[in-house]
Each structure stands twice: as C-alpha cells, then as structure tokens.
C-alpha cells in the first residue's frame, strides 16, 4: 500500500502541532454530557421494540433497501413515514434523506441557481456551507443572529443582483455549537418583507421544542411562511436520517435534482420503522400526565434540567464562562485548544463525559466544552459537573 502524499502529511502535522488532531475513540462508561440523545430515545428499549413490531406487523423482513429510492430502494415504509412527518410537522409534504448532512448538501447544491444569492448565519452548520459551496449561487454570511446586518446585506444584494435573482436566507433554530437561537418571528418578518425565501435547520430543536416536540418553527406558528425546513433524526429522535419539509413542487424538484438523494442507496427498512416508532413515542412523552397515553414525561424532565442547570450557573458564578442558552446545548468557553482538552480530561477523570470543541471547528479563541443535557441526567450529576468546572476555572479564566 502506497504512503500518503507529502502535502497531506504536512496538513496532518500542522493539525497535530496545533493540538487539534482528531481521532476515533470508543465510548466510556461515564456520565453522559456529550451525546445528542437529549430524550434518551437512542438507548430506550421501547422504541427498539416498537420498531420491530412495525416491521413484523407489515411482514417486512428485508435488511437493506437494495438500491436508490429511484430504482429498487423505495417502499411502503418510506411513503408511510413521509406522510406521518408531513402531518406531524404541519407541512405540505416531506422527503426523507439518509442524513442531515445529505439533506443540507442536496438542498443547497441544487435549489439556489446561478444569479441567486444565499445569505447564511456566520455560525451555520458545515453541511450547509458544503452544500452552498457545491452550488452555483453567490453566498454571503451575516453576523450571527444579527437581523440589522442581514437586512443591510439584503438591500445591497437587491441593488447589485440580477433582477430575477432569488435570495435564500438560512439559519438554525438551535445552533449546534452555541446552543442559542435566533429571534425566529422577527427573522421571518424580515424575510417576508424583503421577499426572501427562508430555510430553517431544526436539527437540535426537534423533539425538544414546540408542540409534541415538532420544533421551534411550529412553536411560533411560522410553518406557512417558510420555504423549507430540515428536520433530522440523529439527535433527540435517537436514530438516523433526515427530512426536508416543504411544498409538493419543492419535493418534485429535489427528487429530480438533489444528487445526494438520487445517487445513494436508501435507508434500511428498520431505520424507517425506528423513526416512525420514535415519532409515536414523542406524542407519548409530551402528553400531559394523567391522560390515557401519558408515560414518563421525559420532555418535562429535560426542560426542568435545562432550567436547573441555568440556575446553578448563577449560583456558582459561572455564567461569565458560558454562552447563554435555553436549549439542551451549553458551552463553556475555554480559549486555547490545549486548555480545553486538559479541562475535558480532568472532567473525564471525575466520571463526566464532556467533549472539547477545538479550532478550527470553532474560531480560534472560541474553543469550548460542549455540554449536552438530557432528560436522564440527575440533579446531583449536573451539580457535580458544574462544581468540577468551578474547581478548574483558574486554569482558563
């Protein structure tokens, strides 16, 4: 086997010299403050068993999709799931993709055309940036959650752009690295007033916010004002895959032009059944206690944990080190890769699974610990984590 080219070796060495070299590790039996499994769906037996029952009820005994959805890979479970998702999310239709990355790359590489413009939040997810980079439209970033800056860029684009050029604006309803949210009603109004097409990635909001966990767009009743929403199933839903929500014509366009949809084998049937089972369970955990379908209210447990965590940040005088967040994602800023890695290791030695987020994933000087809260985290675990961080604040303050 031939060796890696010299220039690639140099890139690896530079990453190593910056103390930012990534590597794969196996999970440890630590207290989970790192996974995106906000509601515990990925580890719960109920959804695993329910998915099997869905497969058995339909006598669906296939292991794989056997091909792309446009060839042999489509099946009745896909159609049933997309109908379920459209109804649940109050959308005209839904189109399932293999992952959130595939959905974002497929959308932004194919929908905005030459002469169009994409305006994206400065902290938008890498998958959206990659999709924009593959497309033909011009693109500009606006300052994070800064609507005045966005409006100024829109005005400039209208003056200099082609007369028939569309402007697409894209943001996340909960940002994956900061855990904060834009003012979605105000952002929607800006886009409506300026005739822009708004796209919202709801990856970290689905399951956590909105009616039955349907997301922040539905919490504010914005569905009809949006051009598209991306919902993913690898976070709070606890499995894999994603869907783009929008109009019938958008779905038809994506089926014909989104290369990440066209040229890939479909999801295995069991994955589709798992998503269906998870969505059914969402309705259960968001049902008020005392009703016929109520179970352990994990959604309420998560909300209480978020409130408690924020209160304890104030009690322990740690708010200065954290980015404000009302979501399940909380970030403790620890500038410098080495310091962030060292603090994460100290926390692991105290039995807490917290991961450092290093540059270049985040800008230099904005390195951090990314703390994910879950419905199953106990009060004493969260307090213990914050006290461990407090103990080491002299190392990074």
CATH architecture group name of the largest domain: 3-Layer(aba) Sandwich
Radius of gyration: 22 Å
Q: What is the rounded distance between the termini?
A: 47 Å
Q: What is the multimeric organization of the chains shown?
A: single chain
Spatial order of the strands in the main sheet? 2-8-7-6-5-3-4
For this structure, the CATH topology of the largest domain is Aspartate Aminotransferase, domain 2
Question: Hey, roughly how much beta strand do the residues contain?
Answer: 5-15%
Largest sheet, in brief, is: 7 strands, mixed
Runs in which pLDDT lies below 50 for 5 or more consecutive residues are 289-295
CATH class of the largest domain: Alpha Beta
Overall morphology: globular
What is the H-and-E element order? HEHHEHEHEHEHEHEEHHHHEHEEEH
How helix-rich are the residues, as a percent range? 40-55%
Derived from helix and strand composition plus strand pairing, the structural class reads alpha/beta
What is the count of DSSP helices, taking H or I runs of 4+ residues?
A: 14
Got a strand count? 12
Indicate the mean pLDDT: 93
Number of domains: 2
């Amino acid at each position: 086997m031939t060796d890696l080219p010299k220039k690639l070796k140099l890139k690896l060495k530079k990453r190593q010299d910056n103390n930012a070299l990534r590597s794969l590790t196996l999970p440890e039996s630590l207290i989970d403050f790192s996974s995106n499994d906000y509601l515990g769906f990925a580890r719960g037996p109920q959804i695993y068993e329910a998915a099997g029952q869905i497969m058995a009820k339909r006598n669906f005994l296939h292991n794989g999709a056997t091909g792309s959805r446009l060839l042999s890979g489509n099946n009745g479970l896909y159609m049933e799931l997309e109908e379920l998702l459209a109804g649940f999310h109050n959308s005209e239709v839904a189109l399932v993709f293999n992952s959130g990355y595939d959905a974002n790359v497929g959308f932004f590489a194919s929908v905005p055309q030459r002469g169009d413009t994409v305006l994206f939040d400065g902290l938008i997810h890498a998958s959206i940036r990659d999709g924009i980079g593959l497309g033909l439209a011009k693109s500009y970033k606006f300052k994070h959650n800064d609507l005045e800056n966005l409006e100024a860029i829109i005005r400039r684009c209208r003056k200099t752009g082609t007369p028939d050029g569309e402007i697409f604006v894209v943001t996340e309803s909960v940002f994956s690295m900061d855990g904060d949210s834009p003012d979605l009603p105000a952002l929607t109004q800006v886009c409506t007033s300026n005739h822009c097409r708004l796209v919202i990635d709801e990856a970290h909001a689905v399951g956590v916010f909105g009616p039955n966990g349907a997301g922040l767009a539905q919490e504010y009743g914005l569905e009809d004002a949006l051009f598209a929403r991306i919902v993913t199933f690898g976070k709070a839903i606890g499995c894999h895959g994603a869907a783009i929500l929008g109009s019938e014509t958008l779905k038809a366009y994506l089926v014909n032009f989104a290369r990440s949809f066209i040229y890939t084998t479909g999801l295995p049937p069991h994955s589709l059944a798992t998503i269906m089972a998870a969505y059914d369970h969402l309705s259960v955990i968001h049902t008020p206690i005392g009703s016929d379908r109520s179970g352990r209210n994990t959604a309420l447990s998560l909300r209480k944990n978020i409130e408690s965590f924020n209160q304890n940040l104030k009690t322990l005088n740690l708010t200065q080190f954290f980015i404000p967040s009302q979501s399940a994602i909380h970030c403790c800023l620890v500038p410098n890769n080495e310091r962030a890695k060292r603090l994460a290791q100290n926390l692991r030695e105290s039995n807490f699974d917290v991961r450092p987020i290093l540059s270049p994933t985040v800008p230099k000087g904005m390195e951090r610990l990314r703390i994910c809260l879950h419905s199953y985290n106990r009060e004493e675990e969260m307090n213990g984590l914050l006290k461990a961080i407090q103990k080491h604040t002299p190392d990074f303050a």
